[in-house]
Prior knowledge:
This protein has helices at 15-26, 53-57, 101-115, 163-167, 239-250, 299-319, 324-352, 357-370, 377-387; strands at 3-11, 31-34, 49-50, 67-70, 73-77, 83-87, 97-99, 118-120, 123-131, 134-142, 145-156, 179-188, 199-203, 212-217, 223-230, 258-268, 277-278, 281-283.
Amino acid sequence: MPSFEYDVVVVGAGPSGSMTARYAAMGGCRTLLIEKRQEIGSPVRCGEGLARHFVEDTALPFDRKWVGREVKGAKIFSPDGTELTIEEEHAGNEVGIVLERDAFDKAVAKEAAKAGADIWLKTTATAVLKDDGWVRGVRAKRLEDEITITAKCVVAADGYESQVGRWAGFNTRLKAGDITGTLQYRLTNIGPGHDFPDYCEFWLGTVAPAGYIWVFPKDEITANVGIGVSLDRLKHRHDIKGFLDRWIAKDPRMRRAQPLDMVTGGVSTSPPVSKSVGNGIALVGDAARMIDPITGGGIGNGITAGMILGKVLSTCNEAGDFSLEALQAYEKAWRAKLENNLYRNWLAKNKLVTLTDQEFDDIVKILAEVGVTKLSVRAILQVLKQHKPALVAKFAEFI
């Protein structure tokens, strides 16, 4: 069986994996990035929204090739159609740029390659190599060949279904209520209305039980139109298509809209993992449950954590120490940056799913009347507490 040796092997060439590989290679690690698919970035599995600041924060060269549409902000719609507009600066981590996700993922991987990382496609991890409490690499299938890749550190960047994390002994089990099933069309020939295509849209209530419907513009007549529904609210997985199709049928803008593609999938809407590092192993991005539990968005958090991890791996390599203790620098840094918001949003999500359509109507109506400057749980609840405290009684712990 052929064997290869690297300082770091990153499993999964999504944005968080590629960003990790980029910064690890920049810091001098012999880095290998492996991807099980034959093309990085395809198939697309998300709404493709990203706040601009993440691009600047991670020093990713801006390229209009991976920008589908730049939007002015977000519009939140209650079940009765009440509309709340929030400008882009305060609209959250999934608003600002609507990506061409396949091109974006390739761009991040390109930066990893420029930094010196090797990239192998059609290479699937099949097991982790363990020795005396350490992860020492992965066994993989590259095209038709069985190979081993030894490494000082393995990075699990293989998505919310992460097998690498489980093989390494991490508890990554999820409850049905912490998984959101998704389905998205790319629709074209969309008509005017609600300031389309200048805003990302989020439609709340029983149109998408314990989730929401989104409209993320791609150009003047085209948008990603998708839905997320908590799995514990579905009798059958295919019901999710029915929810979205019924909503589309009722929106006058979609009367002559036609699909260009359709993708299905799932995201975790859980708290982050309790542990993301071990001896010779680290989890990043969706594999570490860094997806926002309310919005289901994870690109920005993933590339942020990938940058942090890549820098820590470089430091570990210089010291010749990839132990759990040495990797704690990554654990502490990403949690300081992301964990509080992720955990609070998970707790808030569990309250939000209990709201009735009437309660959503009341909340959005108040916010639209008095205004809210930031699309965050805390900011919204503080406004509601001032104007209608009875509405936020069940959220008292978050204020």
